[in-house]
Amino acid sequence: MGMMEKLDVQTDLAREYLTFRLGDEEYGIDILKVQEIRGYENPTRIANAPHFLKGVVNLRGTIVPIVDLRLRFGCSSAEYNAFTVSIVLHIGQRTIGTVVDSVSDVMEIPAEAIRPAPEMSSAIDATYIKGLAQVGERMVILLDIESMLMSEDMGLID
Predict the structure, then answer these.
(1) Which of 23, 24, 117 is nearest to 68 (CA)?
(2) Distance from CA of residue 77 to its chain's centroid?
(3) Per the record, a Pfam family (predicted)?
(4) For the chain, does the N or the C end have fewer beta carbons within 10 angstroms?
(5) Are 89 and 34 in contact (CB under 8 A)?
(6) How many Å apart are CA 83 and CA 128, to the nearest integer?
């Protein structure tokens, strides 16, 4: 089996996604991007930052920007409670934290269970949706979190 054939086979395999909730919706991101999950702590606010950038935290000597995904998606603001967590992601050469309502679990989703997102007007640019996965009774919106967080409108790239 040549190298290109191996790559094709790997893309057809199931991948693991960390699922989390924002309001009533459940989202999934590639588990390989996740560095750690932390309880929510108030970040230090940065003047003139976009409204969805809550500030920064010092994570073992690394200054990490914290993005509230609910605010980024234009949803109503949420109460921060005991279930609110920060998912710390390692994207490219950056470490970025995202605030979500709660983390659900890690699930393996086969490629054939993922359907393309329908064309629609929504708060999320469809280019950041990898697809929709039906897992039992649950519909999981799979995000291309790397493209979304590294997009120019996020202001997190140099």
Answers:
(1) 23
(2) 17
(3) CheW
(4) C
(5) yes
(6) 25
Could you state, in order of their start, the residue ranges of all structural domains in the chain?
A: 16-154
Identify the pLDDT of residue 124: 61
The Cα–Cα gap between 106 and 16 comes to 6
Q: Name which of 3-17, 18-32, 45-59, 113-127 the model is least confident about.
A: 3-17
Regarding the domain delimited by 16-154, which CATH topology (the fold level of the hierarchy) does it fall under? OB fold (Dihydrolipoamide Acetyltransferase, E2P) (2.40.50)
Q: How many CB atoms lie within 10 A of CB 158?
A: 4
Residue 148 host element (H or E) = helix 145-149
Question: How many CA atoms lie within 13 Å of 92's alpha carbon, on the beta-carbon side?
Answer: 12
Give me the count of residues in the chain.
158
Residue 2 reports pLDDT greater than 50: no
Collapsing DSSP states into helix, strand and coil, what is residue 92?
A: coil
Three-state DSSP class for 85? strand
* pTM recorded for the entire structure: 0.84
70 phi-psi bin (left φ>0, alpha ψ -120 to 50, beta other): alpha
- Nearest residue to 140 via CA among 100, 113, 118: 113
- In the numeric block, the tokens 């897992």 are attached to 135
Paired with 58 in beta bridges are 63
